[in-house]
Amino acid sequence: MDYAHKLFGQITEPDLFIWNTMIRGSAQSSKPIKSTCLYKQMIEKDIQPDNYTYPFVLKACTKLSWIQMGNQIHGKVVKICLESDTFVRNTLIHLNAKCGDLKVARVLFEEWGNRDVVAYSALTAGYARRGELGIARKLFDEMPTRDMVSWNVMITGYVKCGNMESARKLFDEVPQRDVVTWNAMVAGYVLAKSYEKAFEMFEEMRIAGEQPDEVTMLSLLSACTDSGSLDIGERIHRSMMEMGSRNLSVLLGNALVDMYAKCGYIGKAIEVFRGMREKDSSTWNSIIGGLAIHGFAKESIDLFEEMQREKTQPDEITFIGVLVAFSHGGMTEKGRKYFELMRIQYGIEPNLRHYGCMVDMLGRAGLLEEAFEFAELMEVVPNPIIWRTLLAACRIHGNAELGKRANERLLALRHDQSGDYVLLSNIYASEGQWEGAQNVRKLMEDRGVKKETGCTLIETDNKELMHFLFDSKSTTTSRSHNL
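C-alpha cells predicted for Pentacotripeptide-repeat region of PRORP domain-containing protein:
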C-alpha cells in the first residue's frame, strides 16, 4: 500500500475508480485511517462518492471504531438515497452492530426486506459480542441460508461467553470448517483451562487436514505455558518447524520464549531468543524475567544491559524482571540503583509489583528495618502481599518483634487468611517463644479463622491428577508439585 500511495500521488486527475481502489486497499490494510483521509480529500476535491466508496470507508470506520464519523457518513448516504443499496446497508449494519448502537443496526436490518446472509451474520455477531446469545441464536436459527462466516460467528459467540458445550455442539453440526472454526474451539478450551481438550482439538485439526496458522499456535503455546506442559510445548514447536515456520514471527517467538522460560527450560528459551531475527520489548521481558525467576541473576542483568545497547526501550515489566534478578542474586546496592534508574532515566513510576520486589530484596538481604521503613514510606498503599513478603523475611531471619509489627499491618488489611497467622506463629516457635505462638493460635480461633486444608498435586503418566489431602489439624506443611 505504501508504494500504491506513491503511485497515486503521481496521478494528476485520478478518476472515481482509482479513488475507490485506493480507499478499498487502505481500508483493508493495517492502516485503515488512510482510507478515511482519502475520503476527506475526495470530498474536498468535489468528487462525488458512489455506492462503492461508502462501504469501503464504513469498513475503515468499523476497524477504527469511529462511530461518530460512521454516523456522519450514514447521514450522507440517506441524503443521496443510497441506504437501500445492499453493500452500503450491510456495512452500516456491521458498523453499528460492532461498535455503535445495536438498536440502529436492528432497525436497518428489520426495515430491509431483502436480507441476505451477510446482514444476518453482522447482526448476529453484534448480539453475540455483547453477550446476548439468546437473541444471537434466534437470528442464527432464522437465517434462510448459512455460510461459513455465520457458523463461525455463532461458535465464537459461545466460546467468548465460556459456553463450550454449546460451541462444541455447533462445531459438530457445521457442514464445513475452516481454520477460523478450529481456532475458535482451540482458543475456547484454552480460555476455559481445558488444556487437554485444546490439545485434542489440535490433533483432530491435523487429522482433518486443516493447516494450523499463527493464531492456532499462539493459543496452544499459551495452554502449554499455563499448564506447564513442556513436552507438549516441544511437540508444538517441532510441528511449527515442520510447517516451515523456521523464521519465527515476533509473536510466535515471544510465545515460545515465554513458554520455555516459564516451564524452566532456560537453555531452550535462550536458543529461541537468539534465533529470532526481530525482537520487541516483550521478547526481552520474557527472557530477562525467565532467567531472573529461575535464579540466573547475572545472566538476566547481562541481557538487560544488552537490551539497553540494542536501544530497545525497557518498560515497567522489564524492570520487574531486573529487580527480581537483583533480589535473587543478593545484589542489593545495584537493586537500589536500578530502582532509581527506572524513575530518573526512563520516567517509569514504580507500581506495587516494583515496590514488592524492593521489599523482597531488602528482606532477603536481612535488612528488615530498612524493608519495613521502605514499605511504610511507599508512595502507594501497600497491599497484603507486601506485608506478607516482609513477614516471610522475618520468619527466615528470625525477627519475631518486626514480624509481629508486619503481621499487625497485614491483619489490619484482612484477617481471614489462615496462612498469615500460621507464619507469625512459626516465627515465634522458631525463636522458642511458645507463649507468643500460642497467643497467635488463640487469636486465630477467636476470630473464627480455620487453617486451610493442604493439597498436593501429582501429575501421573496418564495425566490424571491425584489429590493428597491433609487434615486441617496436621502440622505438615504442604506444597504443590507438578512432577
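Residues 86-99 form the longest helix (14 residues).
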